[in-house]
Amino acid sequence: MLNGKVALITGGSRGIGKAVAIKMAELGCKVAINYVSSDKNAKEVAEYINNELKGICKIYKCNVAVEEEVKNMVKQVSEDLGDIDILVNNAGITKDNIILRLKPEDFDEVFEVNVKGAFNCIKAVARGMMKKRYGKIINISSVVGFTGNVGQANYVVTKSGLVGLTKTVALELASRGVRVNAVAPGFIETEMTDKLPDEVKNEMLNRIPLGYFGKPEDVANVVAFLASPESDYITGTTIHVNGGMYLS
Ligand code: NAP
User: Fold this and answer.
1) Angle 22-25-30 (CA atoms, 0-180°, nearest 5)?
2) Which of 19, 16, 6 is nearest to 187 (CA)?
3) Going along the chain, which residue ranges are E strands?
4) Can you name the residues that pair with 87 across neighbouring β-strands?
5) Are 159 and 141 in contact (CB under 8 A)?
6) How far, in Å, from the CA of 175 to the mean position of ligand 1?
7) In total, how many domains does the chain have?
8) How far apart are CA 157 and CA 244, in angstroms?
9) Of 98, 119, 170, 227, which has the fewest CB atoms closer than 10 Å, so is most exposed?
């Protein structure tokens, strides 16, 4: 369905990003995986795509919070695989604490990666997409960006911020054929959620009407839809993937 399209997935070495990278490869994309530190994980995902799926995948180590690094990465991806058609802004971190204990530097760091990272990547690919009059940008927000969450003021700001960024860039790029949307996952089983205490996990589970946690593939399937031509009349919106969590 996406044969020959070039997809850049930030934070593609683990969790949701890894599932998105594999899904994109299964649909025929040439896949660029970005990550910041886990070389082994990134190599394993690329090997799986190249050897098992007989796809095309390359890895790019870069901190998305640093504009210069992002510019160089995007240039390199274009040289290696071709101009980027699909950008998935998935890289994200948490530094949780209640507001009274939340350090300003932890506020800044989470903002730099989660929002500034997406901003840097969008800026770096936008011109190329506008020229081609085609592009799909998908930002990974979170249910907590809509509900708030105790102990995550910094993270919640970034995830609401990505929704505003999505709407604004969708408006700015619509006339050039570039679609910009967000996906807001609920509680998905990855290393990010693994580190939460059991009582928090149980409390979360009680808030999910479907009664179970999501898998990275549940998010990847929706990202794939937004990346495909089947969603061409959708822009500026957020799709929730949370087992009904937002309703309760
Ligand atoms: P994860 O397992 O912790 O993986 C995070 C990924 O982001 C890794 O690939 C990591 O690379 C990369 N990354 C972190 N900082 C980076 C930076 N500065 N530059 C480039 N890459 C960076 O996280 P996840 O649970 O899959 O979450 C993925 C996204 O979904 C995040 O934006 C998260 O906020 C969002 N989300 C997750 C959930 C959930 O329940 N899991 C729910 C809602 C939203 P390394 O491997 O090199 O460290």
Assistant:
1) 130
2) 16
3) 6-9, 30-35, 56-61, 86-89, 135-140, 178-185, 238-241
4) 8, 137
5) yes
6) 31
7) 1
8) 22
9) 98
Establish whether residue 15 lines the binding site of ligand 1, counting it when its CB lies within 6 angstroms of any ligand atom: yes
Q: Which of 62, 93, 146, 166 to mutate to test the pocket of ligand 1 (most atoms within 8 A of CB)?
A: 93
| Interhelix angle 15-26/39-47, nearest 10 degrees | 20
Confidence of residue 248 (pLDDT cuts 50, 70, 90): low
Place of tokens 């949701």: 16
Q: Is 59 helix (H, G, I), strand (E, B) or coil?
A: strand
Angstrom distance (rounded) from CA 18 to CA 16: 5
State yes or no: is 155 an active-site residue. Answer: yes
**CATH number (domain holding residue 228):** 3.40.50.720
Residue-wise pLDDT tens digits, 58-113:
999 999 999 999 999 999 999 999 999 999 999 999 999 999 999 999 999 999 99
Q: pLDDT (tens digit, 9 = 90+) per residue, 191-206?
A: 999 988 999 899 999 9
Residue 177 lies inside a defined structural domain of this protein? yes
State the distance from the centre of ligand 1 to the C-alpha of 93, rounded, in angstroms. 6
* Range of the structural domain that residue 186 is part of: 6-240
pTM above 0.85, yes or no: yes
Residue 246 lies in a domain: no
Do 193 and 150 touch, CB atoms closer than 8 A? no
The protein residue with its alpha carbon nearest to ligand 1, atom 29, reads: 90
Tracing tokens 């089983």 back to the chain, one arrives at 189
Residues counted in the chain: 248
Q: Is 245 a member of any domain?
A: no
CA 90 to chain centre: 2
Q: Which one from 155, 212, 233, 246 is the annotated catalytic residue?
A: 155
